[in-house]
């Protein structure tokens, strides 16, 4: 995945030709003239996105001439351009030297605009070198300078570059926040190059979250905008990103088509970082197509460039790519060498995604070499890293959705403000016309006063009518905006509920897994015992993953159209799955869990919602039951239109006061019979889910005599019944 790195606004071809003409005319007059030097620097800056070699040539010429006449602004501006081109071509040492000299000159001359731009480029260079704290330090200094100057374009560039660093660190939510800030300003100012760059960067974050369809939407917008600006670097970047999406979706032929376009542009511009990155992607494509010779050729090219120019991020990914290729070929000896190097660099980078990929390939290598104990340790490390990534995945997706909603709201507000300005402008024009007409009537004389008065009266009435219509439109827009704000508030309430359910329902399985892994860590079980426990561990992981998938699927249905997710299903299938998953937990407390649901009963609702309700009722029954108690789940057809599902226990029961508060809001959850804790939101959430499925839920209970939860859901309509209705 490649982020767009353009930091200067593009100009059109006509403007570039004009600069070249001005430079040529200035040269004829006096090569040491400061105007000529400034034009050389402007030409160097505007050549960067299409031809970095031209940037280097004109900037070096500018520095040479500026030193002859001791023109400090020309020296500093020229050094910034040479440094920019140098680190783009991989010469970081020379770039650092030029940047430091330019910074010293800008500080001595109090040129804060130049200093802010120089800090921004330094931050981008150190990001490529994986020195993230140093990169953020420079970029935040640049942002403060730009905010004081009030330059929207520079502020946009700062937000975008800070987002790039947070993306490199793996902090996707922070990266997305800064990208949307940058995109909003770019859209407000209609800055096409920055709009394109930020659409691409947002797409990269969505790609990292595996939201591939949404990522492709942003990439296609970015590609269209970049093509309109003739930005070859941007076009190549987006083509590579689309190719990587195709690679992730295992569509290798399409991926190669896009990556070939990207690599040609990178070669033409001598973009070392871009070439290394695309070569690695092509190597992985051919490795998966089992074309080992081509795969090795591209991966070696990628590694040579990354190591020569110290591009640490690309080097780590390419080493892992070599390990992947050799693992696919079954050459585990060579795979081990590259996997170990890749893991060491991944640890240096600290990025969870890179580290998890390195651990996975090393695990496959060690297993292939027969080193099963070491392979298992790497598998545990990979699972821990993936758990760390997956634990953030739901929050990242929610953050992404909320940020997109906020961005859409800001866009709507911006459009409304522009519309109001246009209305005021039209009103101003009408008023000016009215004044002119009155002045004309005075010149014409008293004879035409009565006629003019009548005509102006009619015009005023038309204006008042227009104003009333426009005011009505503004009020309607305000109402629409209030509706959007209410939707945002509802989404925030939904988010709080979901977080509560996650904390409530994931605590038990995760605690079980933590206890098992503690036994493994203490070496208190034998290898044979470990092998016997692995199926149970995998079952726990599968169930936990299924729970997250179910919940995330339901979240999507809430954000779009809940009714469309309703389908016919057998009640027995859902109840049996949940009962089996909690049998072990019930047995640990000495509780008997009985599934008495008939096999033939079919309901019509959202099965994922009903699964969440049944799971919550079972866990609550276990929580408030003692040893030798019984929990029974039953189902019966109540009438022609609904099924009745009951979860009954012989536990400690509830008082009338507790029953009255149960479905009315968040309650102070009591601890269970083994001091289990809860969120207090479970029953309110269950009520919401059942009612969305066109059902009802209620409870009967007495202290010491157990509790019975009951709810209804619609009966599935048979095919014969549908035909009769039709």
Helix content, binned percent: over 70%
What radius of gyration results from the CA coordinates?
33 Å
Strand content: 5-15%
- Mind telling me which CATH architecture of the domain at 567-725 this is? 2-Layer Sandwich
Sheet with most strands: strand arrangement: 2-4-5-7-6
Shape: flat
Number of strands: 7
Number of separate helices: 26
Distance between the termini: 52 Å
Q: From the helix content, strand content and strand pairing, which structural class follows?
A: mainly alpha
What's the CATH first level of the domain at 567-725? Alpha Beta
Q: Name the poorly predicted regions.
A: 6-14, 392-402
CATH topology of the domain at 567-725: Heat Shock Protein 90
Mean pLDDT level = 80
Tell me which oligomeric state these chains represent: single chain
Q: Report the sheet with the most strands, covering strand number, pairing sense and barrel closure.
A: 5 strands, mixed
The CATH superfamily of the domain at 567-725 is Histidine kinase-like ATPase, C-terminal domain
Walk me through this protein's architecture.
With 726 residues, the protein is mostly helical. Among the domains are: 1-110, Serine Threonine Protein Phosphatase 5, Tetratricopeptide repeat (Alpha Horseshoe); 126-187, Serine Threonine Protein Phosphatase 5, Tetratricopeptide repeat; 401-503; 567-725, 2-Layer Sandwich (Heat Shock Protein 90). The chain is built from 26 helices and 7 strands. Strands 2-4-5-7-6 form a 5-stranded mixed β-sheet. It has a two-stranded antiparallel ribbon with strand order 1-3. Strand 6 (697-701) and strand 7 (707-714) form a beta hairpin. Helix 8 (152-169) packs parallel to helix 10 (192-208). The longest helix is centred in the middle third of the chain and has 73 residues, at 372-444. The radius of gyration is 33 Å and the shape is flat. It starts with 12 loop residues before the first helix and ends with a helix.
